[in-house]
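Render this sequence as a predicted structure.
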Amino acid sequence: RVGSTEEESMAVGDHLRVERRLYWHHGIDMGDGTVIHASGEPGRMKLDAEVRRSPIADFLRGGVAVVANAAERLPAADIAARALEGLGGRDYSLLFNNCEHFARWCENGRRSSRQVDTYALISAAVGIGARVAIDAAGRRATIALAARFLPFAAPISTTLAIAGAAVALRSRLARADRD
């Protein structure tokens, strides 16, 4: 049922996701019309985020539920129990403990986020690519262009590359520790 959008096929313990503008929001179906998920108000996520139980309509916000069950999962009752155990949790972190981390932990005991991993690797690749381009341009640039542009671009691209690589590495190491 991975990737299923049939709401009538959803069951207790299913890992659900719904598309938002730039990301997927994840939660665990409780089988009674509610979903437990790490949630908060956009722009105030760190302040408002907590694991809460919401009616499915609130979780979906007009979107379509997609069942995103992993191949390796705990029994449905254990997944639901883990979700209930997490209620009220406020240790949200966009990079290391977001809604997907929570849902995957409920599902199989591993806090991971494919979204974070993907964005981190893209960030590292863009940063490295930009740094290579900047270095190449710097060798050919006029003094005026180099003086105006390169002092800002080089540190930003280097920071982007390092930060992306660091987040991807930390995420991979965290998964390895739990496996």
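Summary. Residues 1-6 have pLDDT under 50 and may be disordered. The helical segments are 45-48, 56-60, 76-86, 99-108, 114-140, 143-148, 150-178.
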